[in-house]
Amino acid sequence: MGPTKSEIAPTNLDELVTRVATTLMGVDSTTLRTAAEAVLRVLVEYFEVDLSFLRFHDTARRATVLVAEWPPREVVPDPDPLGVISFESADPAFAASEHLADILIIRPSDSAAYQERVKEGSGVEETSVATVPLRSGGSTTGTLGFIKYGDRGWNADETRALRTIATLIAQMQARLLAEDQLRHIAHHDELTGLPNRRALLAHLQATLTSPPPGPRALLFIDVDRLKATNDFLGHDAGDRFIIAVAERIRSAVGVGDMVARLGGDEFVVALAGLADEAQAATVAARVQRAMAEPIRLGGQSLRRTVSVGIAVAQAPTAEVGVWLRSADQAVLTAKDHGGNEVVTFTSEMRVREEVRVAVEMSLLSAIRDGTLAIHYQPVVDLRTGTATGVEALLRWYHPTLGPVSPELFVGVAEATNLAGELGRWVLDGACRQLAAWRRERPDVIGGNFTMAVNISPVQLLAVDFVDTVAEVLARHGLTGRDLVLEVTEHAVVGDADAASATLRGLRRLGVCVAIDDFGTGYSSLAQLKALPVMILKIDRGFVQDLGRTAEDLSIVRSIVGLAQSFGLDLIAEGVETELAAETLLGMGCTTAQGYLFSRPLPAEGLLNWVSAPAAPAVPSPR
Ligand code: C2E
Ligand code: CA
Ligand code: CA
Asked: Domain GGDEF spans what residues (predicted)?
């Protein structure tokens, strides 16, 4: 097979220009060097010179950078003295090329001094040099150079062709630059200049697929309380703050590690090479330390902590999306704990996430298809051992997940706007049950027997909540006195104004309000006093081991004292031992719930329990 058309040497200047144009056509930054070498080779052969080179200006660095040369040098030192040459330190020929406007030809007869230098450097007697500037938008962007040992002149046709070729190269250079910029914009965050999400995902993918197999770590970093910062400083300063944070993070990690910004106040660090949880934790600590110094913004100085989530993936089997989500989830957990914390993603968290997704998808239908149920736990008078009422507790037996904890799915419901629907369902079901018991078994369930229902903060803050409660009570022929609503401290204190309006409305209905999990929140006594609540439920965390630890004892004692001084009723939850029951009674707390008496039971079971309490001996007061 003979040479293809493009391999046939050009026989005139027109063919030469055409050849250069076709060679440059599809060039991108990855093929630039090979294509440029091919062009230089054709030029060297056509013009019968000894060597040729192509250099691009790097205006930012005020330097000229070697792109390609022909013929290639046999030995290229590292670093290459011809690679990047600063215009400031360059020899006069290079220095002159910075703003060169037209072809510069130097022949042996032109400059004795120059020839002398070349001779010293290369040992070549006489040299002819032609330097053709690449021009773009009125400025010089590079040079195309030819060297001939001995004398060589260039005629007008040749220099015309050289100018045309230089123009073709300059156009290609401008196109590559634009493509580079586009690529940069597509892969970088505008504000900080860091790689963006797209670049990060590509990098993580490459990290997972490149050897060696083994652990790879990433850190998800989230600035604590940034929204408050923006509200306080305004957006401009907020932006400058983010830039400063980006610099801090950059300074805390290794050069090979990638720092990307996902937007807002979210940053990700992908550690280079093999990295396990311990290494990631070390880097996380460094990032936290870097954030400890206040950041100065104009007149203000600001300090913000960061939350860090760590996720370790096994290359090459791990999946990028899962990996990043895991780190995201770990940082959310860190935030849930109050921020300024480092949390590593665990397989437990993965299960939780799977459950969350499953729950979200099937909760609504569960409300409708009956896989959701209400169980009832007796509230017991410690002095008599009899039930004064029950607490309604949701139960969900998921077809594939099995029993799902109410703590989990109530949280999901709140996060997905199902809380209202779920709450109404429980309230209605619990009230219906109480009415039914009273109707069917008045001998067991008397008129003072109360139904306690847990209310999520979302429900409490709904404007029509009091109306909803009134409606449900009326529907089942109950009064406010039959119902206890349990709310957490957190819910009433979080939005105190809205909450207390609702609580007052409930009080007008005669509904009793209990503060659930008391002792775990932060409410001050003053806040409590202002709220129309009637019952404190001592959190089970203090009760389970009561009598065995001095600390629980003193906490419970002070809660009892508090309730007495405010005239509030008390219920202790989580009574599992006789010792705890006796201790409570000794302190003057007479009402309790707990596994010692009964676990939460289905309606039928509860009725049986109340008819004949299974609890053995009722602990007697000392
Ligand atoms: P909670 O309101 O503090 O409910 C008491 C929890 O303690 C129940 O867990 C109950 O089964 C458990 N418990 C009772 N006695 C003992 C004991 O002696 N020892 C121990 N270790 N635990 C005991 P459960 O049913 O898993 O409910 C967990 C949480 O889910 C509840 O905490 C409540 O915050 C929420 N929840 C349950 N049902 C509902 C509901 O209908 N609506 C709302 N908003 N939340 C609900
Ligand atoms: Ca409760
Ligand atoms: Ca509780």
From this structure: 214-347
Domain ranges for the chain, please list them: 13-186, 197-345, 356-605
In 3D space, the residue among 216, 240, 213 whose CA is nearest the CA of residue 226 turns out to be 240
CATH placement of domain 197-345: 3.30.70.270
Tokens encoding 104: 């510069």
Contact 272, 221 (CB under 8 A): no
Phi/psi-derived region of residue 371, left when phi > 0, alpha when psi is between -120 and 50, beta in every other case: alpha
Q: Is the peptide bond before 72 cis (omega within 30 degrees of 0)?
A: no
Residues 266-295: tens digit of each pLDDT: 999 999 999 999 999 999 999 999 999 899
Give the phi and the psi of residue 462 in degrees, each rounded to 5.
Answer: -70, 135
Give 213-271 pLDDT, tens digit per residue: 999 999 999 998 877 667 777 778 888 999 999 999 999 999 999 999 998 889 999 99
Q: What is the mean pLDDT of residues 367-392?
A: 93
The ligand that comes nearest to the alpha carbon of residue 427 is 1
Helix (H, G, I), strand (E, B) or coil at 380: strand
d(CA 472, CA 479): 10
In this structure, the number of other CB atoms found within 10 A of the CB of residue 495 comes to 14
Q: Which residue has the higher pLDDT, 36 or 461?
A: 36
Alpha helix stretches (DSSP H) within 217-303: 226-233, 235-252, 277-290
Pull the structure tokens for residue 579: 């010792």
Q: Does position 456 have pLDDT exceeding 50, yes or no?
A: yes
Evaluate the omega torsion of the peptide bond into residue 316 and state whether it is cis, within 30 degrees of 0. Answer: yes
Under DSSP, is residue 64 helix (H, G, I), strand (E, B) or coil? Answer: strand
Q: Would you state the pLDDT for residue 185?
A: 86
Which of the listed CATH numbers 3.40.50.10070, 3.50.50.60, 3.40.50.670, 3.30.450.40 matches domain 13-186? 3.30.450.40
Ligand 1 atom closest to residue 407's alpha carbon, by position in its atom list = 30
Q: From the CB of 543, is ligand 1 less than 6 Å away?
A: no
State whether residue 278 is helix, strand or coil: helix
The pLDDT-based confidence of 617 (bands split at 50, 70, 90) is very low
Does ligand 1 have an atom closer than 6 angstroms to the CB of 389? no
pTM beyond cutoff 0.90: no
Ligand 1 contacts CB of residue 575 (under 6 A): yes
Q: Across the strands, what pairs with 591?
A: 381
- pLDDT (tens digit, 9 = 90+) per residue, 359-372? 778 887 887 788 89
DSSP 3-state helix, strand, coil percentages of the chain (rounded to 5)? 45, 20, 30
Q: What is the CA(497)–ligand 3 centre distance, in A? A: 23
Whether the domain at 13-186 and the domain at 197-345 fall into the same CATH topology: no
Pairing between strand 214-223 and 306-315? antiparallel
Q: How far is the CA of 486 from the centre of ligand 3 (A)?
A: 8
CATH homologous superfamily, domain 356-605: EAL domain (3.20.20.450)
Q: How confident is the model at residue 351 (pLDDT cuts 50, 70, 90)?
A: confident
79 prior amide bond cis, ω within 30: yes
For residue 620, pLDDT beyond 50: no
Which amino acid is present at 325? Answer: R
Helix, strand or coil, per DSSP, at residue 84:
strand
